[in-house]
Amino acid sequence: MANITLMPKLSDTMTVGTLTKWFKKEGDVVKTGDMLAEVETDKATMELESYFNGTILKIFSAPGSSLPIGAPLCAIGKPGETYEMPAPAAAPAAPAAPAPAATPTPPPAPAPVVIAAVAAPKAAAPAPTVSAAPAGRIRISPLARKLAEEKRIDITRVKGSGPGGRIVRADILAAEKNPPPAAAKPARADAVPAWGYRSVLDKSPVQAEAFAPASNMRATIARRLLEAKTTIPHFYLDLEIDAGPLLTLREQLNAGLAKDGVKLSVNDFVLKAAATALRAIPAVNTSWTGAGIQSHGAIHVSFAVAIEDGLITPVIRDTDAKSLFQISTEAKALGGRAKDKKLQPAEFTGGTFCVSNLGMAGIDRFCAIINPPNAAILAIGATVKKPVVVGDEIVIGQRMNLTLSCDHRVVDGLLGAKFLNAIKAHLESPSLLLL
Predict the structure, then answer these.
(1) Tens digits of residue pLDDT in 370-415
(2) In contact, 162 and 168? CB cutoff 8 Å
(3) Which long-range contacts (C-beta less than 8 Å, at least 24 apart) are formed by 58-64?
(4) Neighbour count for residue 328 (Cβ, 10 Å)
């Protein structure tokens, strides 16, 4: 009897996976460890390896299919060998929906507003429309849509290469390099009645109406963040620190490390400072379980990374035991694999504290949503030059804002304040982080 390869559980939050491509075809001979297919989960895109030796007798699922855990993917055995299909995998539990879920339908477009000119000459025929969107919905990732808007690319004229014809970032970049031939523009009358005017409503819409079904990652982010924000009693603590010493030390260290190709970031210092503060105040390195408080024996600090269609939090394990150099090297490697969607489950699970930095995006301060089951998350703003009082004089200083979001079931106000001040102390005396 041939062996059946099933959709595996590739992350702790995975319920379904999207089969993006096959590396093998029916009739190919494979051995244990060969790469069979590429699967996109709610966290990353991973390669699925074969657990069996033999010939691929049958492929059950086509690229672009979204399949629950345990769904059959292919049969591997000896030529001519029979195989038995397993019982259908149970779909992820839903609240209460006996009827099959229908494909989401976008709301109807609002009726166009028409401004009529009182004495405008009657047109012989209706004015031609410009590049009307094709029938049906346009499947496009949020990142690709944003990129198309920035580069003024008409998504109705872009062919998607993602699962199910979905338009992804690479398609927009390709369209920018090799734009499709522009549609013929209708003739425009230059004459305007002396008493008339042109309405701003005559302009083409900002973008075509479109609906993009949520990807596995976006659906998981939506579910988990809604759960976090509505079930965790957040409160927020805010501090402004003197970032001058940190920036000075960073510049000195980078000058010495340049020959080794190493460049420390502000976030590397923050990760180290957070880990050091967690070691000094372990009551924050905890989780609420529903029945009590779970204290963690190790300090694993994660950091938020923006990727196409969402974000992910790679984890630096035993952060407190690593040097700034080690943290910087590991953070860059994890960040690169995260953007390529090549992280392994062990690289984005098990974090005990999280850091989110939007300073590089020019954001002065913000409040982050706690990443369950962590007890807190630290939000980092941009370094800003501003007047500050030193002694009795006003000077220009480099300031940076820290905001700590706390789970009030675990962290009380005074505990959170002590922890945030411990981070502040290490960032304002950053040489302590080198010990």
Answers:
(1) 999 999 999 999 999 999 998 899 999 999 999 999 999 999 999 9
(2) yes
(3) 58/26, 58/83, 59/22, 59/25, 59/26, 60/85, 61/19, 62/19, 63/19, 63/20, 63/21, 63/22, 63/163, 64/18, 64/19, 64/20, 64/163, 64/164
(4) 22
Q: For position 340, which CATH number holds?
A: 3.30.559.10
Which residue type, as a one-letter code, is found at position 154?
A: D
The beta strand positions in 196-290, using DSSP E, are: 234-242, 286-288
- Return the axis-axis angle of helices 244-257 and 266-280, rounded to nearest 10°: 120
Query: Smallest Cα–Cα separation from 306: which of 142, 107, 174?
Result: 142
Active site residue 408: yes
The boundaries of the domain holding residue 72 are: 3-77
Choose among 15, 25, 2, 166: nearest CA to 77: 2
Query: What does the pLDDT read at residue 186?
Result: 52
Are the beta carbons of 74 and 1 closer than 8 angstroms? no
Query: Which residue, of 77, 111, 139, is where some domain finishes?
Result: 77
Write the CATH number for 37: 2.40.50.100
> Which position among 234, 300, 408, 426 bears the catalytic label?
408
Domain boundary among the residues 35, 59, 77 is at 77
pLDDT at 161: 84
Spatial distance between the Cα atoms of 326 and 136, rounded to a whole number of angstroms:
50
pTM: 0.65
How many domains is the chain built from?
Answer: 2
How many helices and strands (H and E) does the chain possess? Answer: 7, 18
